[in-house]
UniProtKB/TrEMBL annotation:
Residues 710-723 have a biased composition (Basic and acidic residues). SUPFAM superfamilies: ARM repeat. Residues 322-333 have a biased composition (Basic residues). This is HEAT repeat-containing protein 6. Residues 303-315, 780-791 have a biased composition (Polar residues). Signal peptide: none annotated. Gene3D superfamilies: Leucine-rich Repeat Variant (1.25.10.10). Residues 415-599 form the DUF4042 domain. Residues 281-376, 643-745, 777-806 are annotated as: Disordered.
Length: 1358
């Protein structure tokens, strides 16, 4: 107790002394004489002697006033006093965190700038250090000093010139400049861009110049760290419009490998954003001279290279010992025993000052192996501290021995690399993905490890070889950020087939495919070698990001198999973050779009597979198709005999008969790897071999099965004991085992079933009703195979998934459960076991049963597992169709969970599950024996409507409002997935319940609930059983109009967008009832609601694109439905005029989807037989369509405009002869302009456009009357020849290939023109008819003269 008392007395004395000194300083009057100087120096020394980390200032105002007072009374030319005041400023602002008021801050900065101009240079370091402490986070408050500090002739910019200033001054000037750039985003508007640009250019210039500075290495390292900090702060502000990324990346890339190699640092002036850069940015000038040494065979003498690896000219024996020591540190899957900051920097001085050595250091850039590390790993861990960056008079932090200096250099090199990596990470986050993609070749490898070409250094050099975990984490995080949202950029990646000869050049697609494959190989290699939990988590997350963006359907199969084989070792890792990342990776695999056959093979077996062979048929598509799963991967639902299904699935499959799932026996060494467990050398060799692309022979064991020693036998026995005893052998243990997979809990689960929810009991019964036999002899194993109907001969089972056989096979209690276990995917089992609660095995089973205590995995793990289930149901439902009952019970358990987040994600799974069931009903006619029967889907919906869904949709007072709304909106989304077939089979009370629930949710105030409800209402309105119900349609129209109203929902764009979509669906329903001649509906539907709908749709045409495109649909359908008497009503006339005006405006403005929907809506309007022909807005629509069909750059818009121009069935609808002639002429002009394609994406619509235009011209020609021939003749003479060339192609089209319908045939047009010729009363009319016939009806050619051209047109609409 003496020490604390003494410390307390000392602190009390220091406080009294500190307060006394502060009080005397405040009242000190500085007169400039020697006495005043001495008194001031004494007081400043007394304050500086007190520990700065002990807070004695009760208020920041006291310290701020003191510094402001000193800045005003001390002359800036008194060097000694200025130095002491600057130390006090650094003490208060940097260590005591005193916040200066604006007035005092201005006085301090003014004092410091004046001192820099009047004091001697030996005081500059203290002044600049104080300026850095004062400027940090205060840049926006000192605007009037910006020009003085960093302007054209700014003080700080001048002091960063190493040619005129001392090294210490340059270092502190850069420090101050970095502090000046510490600006928060909301404060950036107070700093002009020119000052940020000047600072940025200074930092980049210093990074390029640093290798040539004759500065102490420690000072140079601090300079680099300050530069990276300043660049990072400026980049995050996003204020610089034109950043030279090539120059910046050239410097940053060089320092990513600082201290990892003995190469002399040579930074190029710029990196170029293309696939192949003109030079290697990190290559040594003498690299050409050392190429011969770098490419020596393994058998040649490498003693000189080993000497270069060691970093010093040691004898060969010492070099060999060091090499063995390095291998020992990295050979077991780790990077040393917790080495955080050291390693790899004993060549730092050599990297700065010495020329490169002709050694094997160039191979440090190669990432083909995990064991060849160039860094020492047996060193002390040096925690990063800001004090190490401060300029000090001695290096007291390290000993003066050679080892101490080496450790200091290594620690500094780690900090430089880490700063460069963090800076690079933030640059990648800010730069646009498309721009960053151009620089990928500078940071990622694109050559395989088997290539003879020398590989350059990349991010994987840091990931695989950096001894510092925090550097590896930063490198993996940078790679993850680079891969985010790059699916469109990687879409061109493609593998080069091996049987084809090597091309003369490497295509972009091939280079991109090689990069994707190399990223897989290197990340898997890093995963095998890593043993730090934080780095493991980042690597697995990076793999998940890679899996989400790579186009696997264009690459050779096998990559995902390798990823799964390595990731599965961490399924039972003790760190929950690692387990969460594993689930994220699995979710990314099953979430790949389009679905893949390889993934369907991986998720199908009941145990995680360890390999996959390529398809027996080379021409098979890599994409997963539901019909493949329907006829190959699972039996028919209509077969009630489960044993028959089992026997059929157990028959051996020949090579031409598809795939054969491997047995469920665990293989040696396949158990999960726990935290801290060192990699087995055999497993490491196997993983390294797999990562380099070496596949095991078919039917061979991946791991060696010969066990020679008792120690090996014990290892195998322990490995078997650690496998999961609930479920299949290779599945992770049930939750609640503390990460140690070992104890069998089947009995405990059964004893505590009464204490668990009913849904949880169902799930556990389905997953844990199995029994594992621990040890079996070969005779027992043979008996097991004979009982289960599996051939016991190893030769008879050549697994398509290349899994190795183990020593024990699980035995199930019941044959039916055995069949079900085989049909249940291991992904579902693994995910479910991470979701459901398990008995707390650390407590007494009786107490667990009585209290009902359960143990759950952490929430992130449960959520990721639910996301895996959701992706699996969405993409691979045909493969997991046999697990419907298990998924149903899981959804029930999630909906009954007390945690609203689990309920929310359970509702998302329910949404995907109900969508999959809806697809099953739609596909029932295609494969009735391979889908879930409709009656089972109906039973599921009856169960949902009987309790869980109404309970979720009701307000829960025990949960917060936000959580309530999220869960209720997600549950309401599922209400729209019933489907018309299932809805029609529901009892009438249940149908009314669905309608009542949805209509009630539309009236909610929350925007999420309202949006989900109006979407469901828009789906219900299309159901045949509801669209003829006038009362329901009226209720739906009232609810939808309230949601579309901009005044009521002005703040919720989502609600109005979905309401506009529902309104368009409602108008579709009106048209359907009219086309079906539903007279009762037409009579009972009131005109007032029709007027409201038209007025609302007209107002919505001026809204955003998402809303206006649906409002155009609604207007077209409403005008098509409108009865004849409505066109005579005055209120309706005004509404029609406003709606048509908005429709015409949207034909030429807004997004392309808005335009083609408006053009298509016009064609809908013209399909109304009751449409009046004497209205002026009819000619306005025709004029706008004639303009759009010629001038719009989007061919889909022009196709819909052509449909609108030929939608009128009678000649009177086109009005006058001039309008009629202009329509014909505009169509010919559209044909001529169809050859002008500005966007290559429009090329695929060209043929369809020409076909629709020719059909429209034929339709117009077929309606021509004698009165129109006068205006036609001049246009026919001008345009007839060009139209004839298109008609020659059109007449040779097969009728089955034409996509436009309702167009008269050429023969019908010929007959009409011949009739007109007979009716002609003058020669001018006859010549006009003859010209028309010559243009529209070309002479047919015989097949011998010209073979017919067959074109296939496919019309695509959004």
């Amino acid at each position: 107790m003496a020490a604390p008392l003494t410390l307390g007395v000392m602190n009390a004395n220091d406080k009294v002394k500190f307060e006394s000194s502060i009080a005397r300083l405040r009242h000190l009057r500085f007169l400039g004489d020697e006495n005043s100087k001495a008194s001031l120096c004494l007081l400043l020394d007394e304050i500086g002697a007190i520990d700065p980390h002990v807070p004695f200032l009760e208020k920041d105002r006291e310290g701020s006033e003191l510094l402001g007072h000193l800045s005003r009374i001390v002359p800036p030319y008194q060097d000694r006093l200025v130095a002491k005041v600057c130390l006090l400023i650094s003490n208060f602002c940097g260590k005591r965190n005193v916040i200066l008021s604006t007035t005092d801050l201005h006085d301090v900065i003014h004092f410091l700038t004046d001192s820099l101009q009047q004091c001697q240079t030996f005081v500059y370091t203290e002044i600049l250090n104080a300026c850095a402490a004062a400027c940090e986070n205060n840049t926006y408050r000192i605007e009037k000093f910006h020009d003085t500090l960093v302007g054209g002739q700014g003080i700080l910019l001048q002091l960063t010139d190493d040619t005129t200033c001392e090294d210490e001054i340059v270092l502190e000037a850069v420090h101050c400049l970095a502090a000046f750039c510490t600006i928060k985003p909301h404060e950036a508007e107070h700093v002009e861009v020119q000052y940020l640009s000047a600072s940025f250019d200074t930092f980049v210039h210093l990074l390029h110049r640093a290798p040539h500075l004759k500065m102490d290495p420690s000072m140079k390292n601090k300079l680099l760290i300050y530069c990276f900090s300043g660049i990072q702060n400026i980049v995050l502000l996003k204020r610089l419009p034109n950043v030279e990324l090539g120059t910046l990346f050239a410097a940053v890339r060089a320092y990513l490998f600082f201290g990892l190699t003995s190469h002399q640092m040579n930074i190029p002036s710029q990196l170029f954003p293309n696939v192949v850069t003109p030079y290697d940015s990190l290559a040594s000038p003498r690299s050409h001279e050392s190429n011969s040494a770098l490419t020596k065979p393994d058998g040649e003498d490498m003693s000189g290279q080993n000497q270069g690896k060691a970093g010093s000219a040691t004898p060969s024996g010492d070099s060999s010992r060091k090499k063995q020591k390095k291998r020992k540190g990295r050979g077991r899957g780790g990077r040393g025993g917790g080495d955080e900051d050291g390693g790899g920097a004993d060549d730092v001085k050599k990297g700065w000052n010495e020329p490169p050595v002709n050694d094997e250091a160039g191979k440090a850039a190669s990432i083909s192996g995990t064991g060849g590390n160039n860094m020492l790993t047996e060193m002390e861990t040096l925690p990063w501290d800001i004090s190490l960056l401060k300029v000090s008079s001695s290096d007291s932090e390290f000993s003066d021995t050679e080892g101490g200096r080496a450790r200091q250099q290594k620690a500094e090199a780690v900090r430089v690399r880490h700063s460069a990596l963090i800076c690079f990470l933030n640059i990648v986050r800010v730069v646009e993905k498309k721009v960053m993609f151009g620089y990928w070749s500078s940071f990622l490898p694109d050559l395989s490890s088997t290539s003879t070409a020398q590989q350059t250094q990349s991010l994987f050099t840091v990931i695989l070889k950096d001894p510092s975990p925090k550097c590896r984490v930063a490198a993996v995080a940078s790679l993850t950020c680079m891969l985010e949202a790059t699916r469109n950029l990687l879409a061109a990646a493609q593998d080069v087939t091996t049987h084809q000869p090597s091309p003369a050049f490497t295509t972009f697609s091939a280079a991109l495919g090689a990069t994707c494959r190399e990223m897989h190989r290197c990340l898997l290699q890093a995963l095998v070698a890593e043993n730090f939990n934080s780095v493991l988590t980042q690597i697995i997350k990076c793999l998940a990001n890679l899996v989400s963006n790579v186009p696997y359907h264009r690459l050779n199969p096998g990559l995902l198999t390798k990823v799964l084989k390595q990731v599965r070792h961490f399924f039972n890792h003790k760190d929950p973050n690692v387990r969460t990342a594993c689930l994220t990776c699995i979710g990314a695999m099953v979430g790949i779009r389009p679905p893949l056959m390889e993934v369907s093979q991986l998720i199908r077996p009941p145990v995680p597979p360890v390999g996959v062979n390529r398809s027996a048929h080379p021409g098979d598509s890599p994409l997963f198709r539901p019909e493949d799963a329907a006829f190959l991967l699972y039996p028919s639902f209509s077969m009630p005999q489960v044993s028959k299904v089992t026997e059929e699935r157990e028959e051996p499959v020949t090579e031409d008969g598809g795939l054969l799932i491997n047995s469920t026996k665990p293989s040696q060494g396949e158990g999960p790897m726990s935290q801290g467990e060192e990699l087995d050398p055999k497993r490491q060799a196997d993983a390294s071999e797999e990562a380099t692309g070496c596949a095991a022979p078919k039917g061979a064991n991946v791991l060696k099965s010969d066990i020679t020693s008792d120690e090996d036998r014990n290892k195998v026995r322990n490995s078997k004991e650690e496998t999961d005893s609930i479920g299949d052998a290779n599945l992770p243990p049930i939750i609640g085992q503390d990460g140690n997979s070992g104890t069998q809990h089947a009995g405990i689960v059964s004893n505590s079933e009464a204490a668990m929810p009913e849904s949880t009991n169902k799930i556990i019964n389905q997953l844990s009703s199995v029994q594992i036999i621990g040890e079996e002899t070969s005779d027992t194993e043979s008996g097991i195979h004979s009982r289960s109907g599996v051939a016991s001969s190893a030769e008879g089972r050549t697994p398509a998934l290349a899994a190795s056989s183990g020593e024990a096979t699980p035995i199930y209690k019941d044959q039916t459960l055995q069949s079900m276990a085989r049909e249940t995917s291991w992904v579902i089992k693994f995910s479910v076991k991470n979701i459901i609660g398990q008995p707390d095995t650390e407590r007494d089973p009786c107490q667990v049963k009585s209290e009902g205590q359960q143990r759950f995995e952490p929430l992130p793990i449960r959520l990721e597992a639910l996301q895996v289930i959701s992706n699996l149901v969405k993409n691979y439902f045909p493969v997991i169709r046999q697990s419907v009952s298990l998924l149903r019970d899981l959804i029930q358990m999630c909906l009954e969970d007390t945690n609203p987040i689990i309920q929310l994600h359970g509702c998302k799974v329910l949404d995907e599950f109900t969508q999959a069931l809806h697809r099953e009903v739609q596909e029932a006619s295609l494969a009735p024996n391979h889908v879930i029967p409709v009656h089972e889907i109906l039973d599921f919906w009856l169960y949902l409507l009987g309790g869980p869904l109404p309970k979720l949709l009701a307000f829960n007072p025990d949960v917060s409002s936000d959580s309530n709304n999220l869960v209720r909106s997600a549950a309401c989304e599922s209400m729209g997935n019933i489907g018309e077939e299932v809805f029609a089979r529901l009892p009438r009370p249940r149908q009314m319940q669905c309608i009542t629930l949805v209509l009630g949710m539309v009236a909610e105030d929350d925007k999420l609930i309202k949006a989900a409800a109006v979407r469901a209402l828009g789906i219900y309105i299309l159901y045949p059983s509801l669209r003829e119900d006038v009362l329901f349609v009226l209720d739906a129209a009232t609810a939808i109009l309230e949601c579309v109203d901009a005044k009521r929902n002005s703040k919720s764009q989502t609600v109005r967008f979905k309401a506009a979509w529902a309104m368009a669906n409602l108008c579709d329903t009106l048209v359907t009832n009219k086309d079906s001649n539903n007279e009762e509906f037409l009579q009972e539907f009131p005109d007032s609601v029709l007027l409201k709908l038209l007025t609302c749709a007209a107002a919505a045409t001026r809204d955003s694109d998402k809303i206006s495109c649906n409002s155009g649909r609604a207007i077209g359908n409403l005008l098509r439905y409108m009865p004849a008497h409505c066109f005579l009503q005055e209120d309706m006339k005004d509404a029609i005029q406003a709606a048509v005006k908005g429709l015409i405006r949207n034909m030429t403005t807004g997004a392309m989807k808005v335009r083609w929907n408006s053009c298509y809506a016009a064609s809908n309007v013209f399909r109304n037989a009751d449409l009046p022909v004497d209205q002026p807005w009819t000619s306005d629509i025709l004029s706008m369509l004639s303009k759009v069909v010629q001038t719009c750059s989007n061919f889909k818009v022009r196709i819909n405009a052509a449909l609108g121009l030929c939608a009128l069935r009678h000649r009177r609808g086109y009005g006058s002869s001039i309008t009629f002639s202009n329509v014909w002429t505009s169509l010919i002009g559209a044909l001529e302009s169809s050859e002008n394609i500005n966007d290559f994406a429009e090329y695929k619509y060209k043929d369809s456009l020409i076909e629709h235009l020719c059909g429209a011209v034929l339709h117009i020609t077929s309606l021509t009357e004698l009165s129109d021939l006068g205006t036609f003749r001049q246009n026919v003479l001008l345009k007839g020849h060009s139209f004839r060339t298109y008609m020659e192609k059109y007449v040779k089209l097969d009728l089955t290939t034409k996509s436009c319908t309702g167009i008269p045939t050429v023969e019908a047009v010929r007959q009409h023109l011949e009739t007109l010729e007979l009716q002609a009363s003058c020669d001018d009319q006859r010549r006009s008819v003859q010209d028309l016939m010559q243009a529209c009806l070309p002479d047919s050619e015989s097949p011998e003269d010209k073979p017919p051209v067959k074109l296939t047109f496919k019309q695509i609409y959004d």
